[in-house]
Amino acid sequence: MNLFYQKLLLIYFTALGVLVGASLIGSIAAVITRYPPIEILLRISREIKIWAIVAAIGGTFSTIEILQLGILEGEIRALIKQLFYIISAFAGAHTGYLIITHLVGRSL
């Protein structure tokens, strides 16, 4: 049971790190190319959200297989675990997005 919580935290912080890191590093290119870095920072943080979720859960095929087992073969426990992992990844990515918007000083 302890491994479940550890994996939830790992997924959460991976999604958060992917979003914040990609947004900040990506906005450096905006400075180099003389685009407004704040606008690029916000745009990247909005657009990379789904990729942060996918990266945090480790790809989509294993998740889809586990969801299939849960729905079609009655593996309810695996289905619930996978849903928690997806929610954790979404929460991490959204927290990263909120951090970026807070740093920039813009509302959602």
Tally of individual domains: 1
- Counted by DSSP, the helix tally is 5
Instruction: State Rg.
Output: 16 Å
Q: Main sheet, how many strands, which sense, barrel?
A: none
Helical percentage: over 70%
Strand content: under 5%
* DSSP strand tally: 0
Low-confidence stretches: none
Distance between the termini: 36 Å
Which structural class fits the helix and strand makeup? mainly alpha
Cα shape: elongated
**Oligomeric state as shown:** single chain
Order of helices and strands: HHHHH
Organism: Dehalobacterium formicoaceticum
Keywords: Membrane, Transmembrane, Transmembrane helix
InterPro entries: Spore_YtrH
Pfam families: Spore_YtrH
Keywords:
108 residues; mainly alpha; 5 helices; transmembrane; membrane
Could you provide a short overview of the structure?
With 108 residues, the chain is mainly alpha-helical. The protein has five helices and no strands.
How do the strands and helices of this protein lay out in sequence?
Blueprint: H1 2-32, H2 37-47, H3 49-57, H4 61-72, H5 76-104
Helix pairs in contact: 1-2, 1-3, 1-5, 2-5, 3-5, 4-5
Protein name: YtrH family sporulation protein
Pfam families: Spore_YtrH
Keywords: Membrane, Transmembrane, Transmembrane helix
